[in-house]
Records
---
Amino acid sequence: MKVPQFMPFVAMEEYESIKRCFETNWITEGPLSSEFNKKILKIINAKYGVFAPNGTLALILAMKALGIKPGDEVIVPNLTFFASASSVEFLGAKPVFVDVNKDSQLNVADCKRVLSSKTKAIMPVHLFGLVPDMSALKKFATEHNLLIIEDAAQAFGIKSAGQSCGTFGDIAAFSFFADKSLTTAEGGFVATNDKEIYDKLLFLRNQGRRDRGSFIHPEMGYNFRITDIQSAIGLAQLKKFDRVIKNKVLIHSKYTTLLNNSEHVEILQPSSDINPFIPFRVILKTKSNEAEQLMTYLQECDVEPRGFFYPLHKQPAFDFLKDDERYDDIHFPISNHIYKNYICLPSFVSINDEQIEYVTKTINTYYQKGGNKK
Ligand SMILES: Cc1ncc(COP(=O)(O)O)c(C=O)c1O
């Protein structure tokens, strides 16, 4: 049986929805985008928001609007998707890495170690449906006068202690890439509750002007528009978002139940504060640096696993940072452990029970055959 890592959850509803763009002859960012925008803000309970072409550009736009500039430093967790850190670098600022905890979330206790007179902001990343300790993080940010940029690329619709991801900090970036719980194929969104920041976002994303059609540009700006075709997909996706949440939680709990008796592995669990929990991927934790070998075995059996993020302090693209001792390997024991032990199991919305059973059976067989023989 073949089990892919991922399949987008799109079908005729999305197809029917994009027809509206062609019927009305409005394909660029327009009425459907403003309808989609309002609905997004309602779900995440934020006051203001703008679209961006993808999550990476949403992060860049968000930090630009906050005034992050060359020479500034931004604290970023060492285990996250590359774009969390590369977006800082693209603004000429420096991403400074801190270790994560065993749940793979930013470890606030490690932040003091990297503080400098240049530190301007901190970027919590809500990874895999989990949430870092936001009250400790906010306390730390207030004590040290730091701005908070939430990388909520994977966290649309998730709440922790009743508060939506994307509203804890000064600004937040979301991604609507095809593997996200809500997709527009490609797409991003920047949310804030601050009117002044919102005004900056409007100028920055529209060539430094407030209104389209004018050729007078009071400020510098880019083009961060999306299209109504993408928003039409997003609107159709919103209609089935409750089903997505329900299915994803079910998939997570099926894996948990089926592997409950294993002495070798366990499934990463959310804290009870997180509700709704919307697992971006189901994460399997192994114990003896087994990720690589288990993934090879799964692949041989037609299951497509995915490894964990490579620790950022080891990324070849960040070699130029390594003279600074804050990037020394010794500071990142948990990131290194997670990289060698955690893997992402296939957990797309339409995965069926047989496929989940096959994946867990394959994992159990791997251990019956002796597991890690390295
Ligand atoms: C944590 C995180 N940040 C940023 C991004 C970038 O989003 P995009 O792929 O839409 O540019 C992703 C995408 O997967 C992500 O997972």
Note: Residues 241-368 form a domain with the Aspartate Aminotransferase, domain 1 fold (CATH 3.90.1150.10).
---
Amino acid sequence: MKQPFETMPTVLTADEIVGKMLRESDKVEVELPQRLPAIMKAKRRESSRVRACERVSAGYLESLVRSVPTIERLHPFYREILELQCGVANVRSALGRISRAARVIHEVAKDASRRIRSASTPQEAGKARRAFLGRAASIIRDARGDLELIAAMREKMKDLPAADPSVPTVVLAGYPGVGKSTILRSISRAKPEVRPYPFTTKELMIGHVLIGRRLIQVVDTPGILDRPMDEMNQTERLSITALGRLANLIAFIVDASEANGFSLESQQSLRSGISGAFPELKILTFLNKADAASKEQLDRATAIFGKSDLMAAAKGEGLEAFKKRVLDALGPLEGPEWRGEGI
Ligand SMILES: Nc1nc2c(ncn2[C@@H]2O[C@H](COP(=O)(O)OP(=O)(O)O)[C@@H](O)[C@H]2O)c(=O)[nH]1
Ligand SMILES: [Mg+2]
């Protein structure tokens, strides 16, 4: 599964493009009949050089613009991150100026070709080609800042999670040690994919789960949805905003045995913080480690969280019910049917 920025090739700097263009100009060799008059040879040679340079300069800029995912078609999850990382308006205007630079290079090349055709001496043809190279180089250097912006954008966006926003997504939440990883590992078809999480040093774990013929994504966010919201810094809050664009549902996991060191009461207060951060999302609560919890703990958990599904993920108990409840809650969301590939 790919994310839209993953396939963007490295962005060349202005100097690299100019260097490539000048080398290309020197490389061009044209097969010319011996008997051709010197002026004709010069015209052919210089025209080929201009065309070759136009290809590696304007052609490169155009392919660069094409390699950037169309902003209008980006899923809000990725658009939100792009906005936070670089500013969508900045990216848009940089791309606009790069496209314009390519068009101007084409015009300058056309003009140079005309002058080469009407040249009356080889020197004149050479001069027209050199003038073109100079103009093209300065147009590319003027785009230096825009190229840098796109290069920086690629750096920031290329490692984003390959979460597929078209697949219904449930995000796991709950204090460390409650059993989130155990659940993800036990229900995923393959080993969960580990990706750096946007703007933070944290990692995001994505598992693909096939329930019947429905494919869903289960996302675990260590260090993000496992501690109180008021302890989050600005960056972490932003990543939560982006995460909210991807999530369709939250599964809040409780350690009913309190063995992880968090009382049921503090787990409840984490849950209300999370529910405040995602007011539009439904939260399902699961009481895990039912095998290790006392009757008193289970009763208290039920009093605090309301009647919730019990599970013992480490023993494989309650996993089928977990999947079924998640699927029911995702309900009418249309995820793609699994076609036996891509995961
Ligand atoms: N007794 C018991 N232990 C569990 C259960 N589920 C997970 N654990 C254990 O709890 C510890 C933390 O689990 P982990 O999945 O890493 O929690 P996470 O931090 O929420 O991802 C591990 O030692 C698990 O083996 C369970 O249902 N019962
Ligand atoms: Mg974990």
Note: Residues 337-343 have pLDDT under 50 and may be disordered.
---
Amino acid sequence: MTRTSTGKPMQHARVFSKGGSYQEIVDSDMLLHKEVIATAISSLSNWLKSDQQPAMLRILDLACGGLPIVPSALMKAFPDRHFDYCGIDINSDQIADAKSHKFSPNVTPRLMQGDSWDPSTWSDCGPFDIVYIGLNIHHAVPEELEYLAQQLHTLIRMGGIFINHDFFRPTKYPYLRRPDHDPKTGISLSLISPERLKRAGYPLPQNPPQTPDWRENFFKPYIKTMKDRGMPQSMIDMTVQHVSEHDYPVTTSEWAKILSQHGFSTQEYAYPNSHEPLRDFFDTVVATRIK
Ligand SMILES: C[S@@+](CC[C@H](N)C(=O)[O-])C[C@H]1O[C@@H](n2cnc3c(N)ncnc32)[C@H](O)[C@@H]1O
């Protein structure tokens, strides 16, 4: 289980910490980080050309992890710009690792333990020109995504850009909603309390429809890829447990629609030509605040 009775979901997730499986998964590009770096660089390049952007750019990285691989490569690709980087992660191990990461000389890093879904604890770092989220929104139900989009609208300045690499559900599968509580332990899986969601105007539905679990179609190629790349069974089990407990993605278009309803113009990037077996499950959404 990747939550303690007192912590928030994934605050003590072994999968991301030292000895966890996540580092190996990133290193082998299973989740398409390399492809996303290319998308992020070309999107930022176009964005920088599109307007008079300041020489010093403020960038927020939510759920940054111990290795902020995409933002780090992105900032390095623009050596004539200076980046004021703020990385937030809920896991203290990840923040400790990220603090020892060697950023390029054009970056002033600031790393803080905090909850991506509760900006009240760190929003004084903003407003931001750029917000990046890598692989975190797939844990949320649609009401939590609405709340996140509302927060992004206040965190990102007008004309600013949002880049999100995530696990998305292919459109051929029906939406599977995350349970409010872990069925085995009864511990809450909510990223945002129902009360806060209600106050923000996004009450949780009373009796959401039950649908079949399509994620077997993701587990099969994921497990095979991890095996083929020599990951030990214990790490494979850890990864599968994490995904089955926490991952309930929406589709790329469903997320883009929510962002567009909150004042963003959006662009979706898929990677059908990648050789990676999980290419159909990982996309990038790039959004610009236009209202
Ligand atoms: C899949 S890793 C992604 C790391 C990195 N962003 C990337 O793209 O590779 C997810 C990270 O999210 C962090 N995390 C999970 N829930 C979080 C939350 N509510 N607030 C902040 N960080 C969170 C975990 O500690 C972990 O480091």
Note: DSSP finds nine helices and seven strands in the chain.
---
Amino acid sequence: MAFDGLSAVSAADVTSLAAVRALSHLSTSSSTPVPMSQTTLKTSISCTGIGLHTGKKVSMTLHPAAENTGVIFRRTDIAGGNAEIPALATHVLDSRLCTVIGLNAQQSIGTIEHLMSALVAMGVDNVVVEVNAPELPIMDGSAAPFVFLIECAGLVAQSATRKALKVLKPVTVSHGMAEATLLPSATPRIDFEIDFPVAAIGQQAMTFSVSSSAFVAEIARARTFCLIDDIAKMREAGLALGGSLDNAIVVNGAEILNEDGLRYSNEFVRHKVLDAIGDLALAGKPILGHYIGKRSSHALNTTLVKTLLADPSAWTIVDMLPEEIPAAGLPSLARVAAQ
Ligand SMILES: [Zn+2]
């Protein structure tokens, strides 16, 4: 299957995804909870789009992968492109504007954060991402097109148990006014606060209990954003050449320049939640903990993950139980988008 952009989700595919979830939830009625299974995609699925920074056309294909593979990126456009780049914080090369991971400067892939967010939130454990450019397509600047691909491909349960990284004690990192913390928690949760000295954004805060259904309903469609003053600076530096009102909210003081305005009144903080979920996914497993971000960034979130992993007394690996990722009901992205 191949898609360019977002269109209606097939009812059959959504049903199949819901069925996988339902299987995972059978355990809630028994006295001994049965851990969730790992999942992969039912079939390969492709899309094309524009690279945010290069401005060039990018093709991306998500392939099913064996259990315990995790998320692996593979560049098809360079010599030695069959090298596999695991989506792990230890491979982050740069996270100033977007997250770039790689084995080295050549064998690297950028702008992975929105796909990573969609994969972990939708419960895709194992996938190989083939891409023919140095960055993923930006699509509409949100995670919704990637959720759409996952919904269309469908998920299959695998025999291995899904593992989670359970936070055992608080870990905090900070940089200037920014702070990011992970606390122990029975279920995954994200709290985010932003404070931009720009009238259209200002102070926004959100508390989000992570589940696939809530991600689709509340987070996936929130787009990335930038200030109009930053665009000229990025272009001068040869960046954001593919950036446009089609793939980012552009803010000028109190004004939103996008013709259709915002998708949510607090779309900015929702997108920061989306980014944080994608950044935390670079732990290599879903994090069972409570994340609190205050003005945090990709760079600080990556530092948080590395700091957590560097302290073996701060975490442990556990089997993930269904009640730790409540996913009752699966709203179709198409239905959410139509609201
Ligand atoms: Zn983002």
Note: The radius of gyration is 19 Å.
